């Protein structure tokens, strides 16, 4: 058993600072959110699908939709995982991307709470209910339900929306799709053997090619079992500072 003074020193100097940093990170508004629980991705897909699902006209008179309370008497809502239907979703104003990062669940109607949930009619009274103020207090039912699905607090992702309304993932996916599509186009150019095209790629894309070589070179060096680990401030890999290396192929095979 360790001496008490040594144990106290370890707790105070080694363990406590980690929790102080975590607490400060949770209580300070830095524009960064904890990693999204898995249900939020499914919720966004379901919401977007319901936004685009056409509503058959005339609407069945038996379907009574209350946009303020987000309830409907159609048979689709009670069997929905998220208690949503196309009538409710399309009776609300379009929501911004940040809605899917911040919306909270509640135990009673309205089952979803966020300031952007406003009926199309423009009735301001809808903001007087729980939807507008559900996030004001620390003990709301929405907070309790959301915490049940929160994943590891240490996994942080930057989900702050860009000026054009896109989230980090949406912006990155758009760039990846552009690069992949352009790579297919370049592959098609090989059959023509046009040196002018090659020179244009190397001239106009020089900075991007340098970044790609630096990132892949850093990854290769990290995966080697021999040799020195690349330094964070190494001039040759400085541009790849924020690039996280993928696990070696052998690790992927072992995982399966």
TrEMBL record:
Bias (Acidic residues) ranges: 146-156
Keywords per UniProt: Metal-binding, Zinc, Zinc-finger
Region (Disordered): 115-163
Zinc among keywords: yes
MF (Gene Ontology): zinc ion binding
Top-level taxonomic group: Eukaryota
InterPro entries: Znf_SWIM
Domain SWIM-type, first and last residues per copy: 63-96
Record's protein name: SWIM-type domain-containing protein
Organism per entry: Mycena venus
Lineage, opening ranks: Eukaryota, Fungi, Dikarya, Basidiomycota, Agaricomycotina
